[in-house]
Design a protein that fits this description.
This protein is mainly α and about 100 residues long. The protein has a domain at about 35-95. About 55% of the residues lie in helices and about 0% in strands. It is built from four helices and no strands. It has helices at about 15-25, 40-55, 65-80, 85-95. α3 packs across α4 (about 85-95). The termini are far apart. The mean pLDDT is about 80.
Length: about 100
């Protein structure tokens, strides 16, 4: 006898309505991502990321809150770059200025 799942897994709690809407859109494959970044800013961020990654790099482990990581991943998606590159560029900018 084959059993079918009758309950849907519960996702949450959400930090706010925007997070709930994003997660539900991702789960339903209805997510539409639109970049609000200008091409010039995108090129600038990509250059910063490339510069940060061009040196010899060292692997580290970093604990970060889930909420911050979710926001970083969302921002990286908007910027059109991997989230690790965004973190790298943020760190590079912070220590270079």
């Amino acid at each position: 006898m084959t059993r079918t799942m009758t309950k849907t897994p519960k996702i949450g709690p959400f930090s706010d309505e925007d997070e709930r809407a994003l997660i539900e859109a991702l789960e339903a494959d209805d997510a539409r991502f639109v970049s609000h970044i200008s091409p010039a800013r995108k090129n600038e961020l990509q250059a910063i990321a490339r510069a940060a990654m061009s040196d010899e790099r060292e692997k580290i482990t970093l604990r970060i809150s889930r909420e911050d990581l979710t926001r970083i991943k969302s921002k990286a998606m908007q910027e059109g770059m991997p989230y690790q590159s965004l973190i790298n560029s943020i760190l590079h900018k912070a220590v270079s200025s």
